[in-house]
Amino acid sequence: MIQQTAIQVKVVEDGVPVTGFPGAVVLERHARAMGFFADAERHLGWVKERRRGRSAGTMLFDLMMVPCAGGECIDDLAALRADEGLRRLLGRTVTAPSTAHDFLRAVGPAGLGDLSAVRRGQLRHVSRSLGLREATLDCDATLFLSKAQRALRSYKGDRGWFPMLAFWAEAGMVVHDEFRQGSASPQSDAVAFLKEAVAQLPPEVERVCVRSDSAWYQAALLDHCHEHGYLFAVTADLDEAVKASLLEAADAPWIPLEDAGDAEGNSQWACEGVHTLNGSAHPYRMVFLRRERRQGDLFEGMYSYGAIITNRSDLPTQELVRWHRGRCNCENHIKELKHGFALASLPSGDFFVNAVYLRAVTLAFNLIASLKRTALPESWAAHTLKTLRFRLLGVPALVARHARRIQMRLSRKWPWRDILVPLLA
Q1: Most buried of 272, 274, 321, 407, CB within 10 angstroms?
Q2: CA 97 to CA 92: how far, in whole Å?
């Protein structure tokens, strides 16, 4: 039996500039290629109050680097600021936490539109790089828990904030966000939110599609989509009118959904009918879903039911169900924002400071999404920020100066060196 002993380490402190986040160079270059800094100065230049000091684009970029570097809060800027290797690579010191807090307060509600303009530049860059002509908008609201007294309680009784988010499925990016109190309803102002989301899309987009859960099962919203030529698929409420339509369509043949079984492997079927919502002027295609219960219910029987309402006639039943269920990927995006980008707890008790910070983090989210889709191998598109940080962005590196140039010394045995070096070179 081999006896284990404690690892013996001698700690030696010196002034060698080592960085734990060389990926800042990759992100800074990619942001510059997207026109991020030029857009930030054009739209947020008014935030800078003194002639000297940092530009608005620099402060905004440093805020975006906090979650990308693995930080949990704005005060973690202090760690990046103390990184001597990072200072050499960027050619400047990172913004101080106190300055970043002042920047958020200075932007305030007046600057939210300017941040949206910067985000439109990101969307335009990715749209042109990938040649995207279609935008599928996945819209959903999520609760951010908070102990702030100014945060109101949700319908579940939890105190927090309840922003609405719209994601561009083909690009994997945030298109629009609307910060709301925890007491807000996901159903409220749905048409107004959709109008704002569509307005953020670049002019190259020729077709708009909308997917949502039952929160957007509203006659006004569905009619708005239909009258403006937007294709939609929305989960329907199983209200009395829908149940009556289900009974009318029950005699139609149920089509087995071969590859659309649930997580437990239970079989599912679908049939179709036509349904007109109260207050709507248009009849819509209704796809009814039947799922085999894992255990029979005395009152409900052996099946549970669901429904999807849509104005798409170009997809057969199975493909329509699969397309509609693709909206569930926005749940993964929200999870990534909360945990990967450290938005689970927002930095302030002030409503507008949190609204600005949320929009700034969505810029970081879009920057990473753009990097994955335009600069990295296709197989990396599904990687989370945590994976990117471990493989690329957070690789320890020695920063040296040689022949009047900055050198970054990496291990030649790093498994993903062939991907990292071209991004840095």
Answers
A1: 321
A2: 15
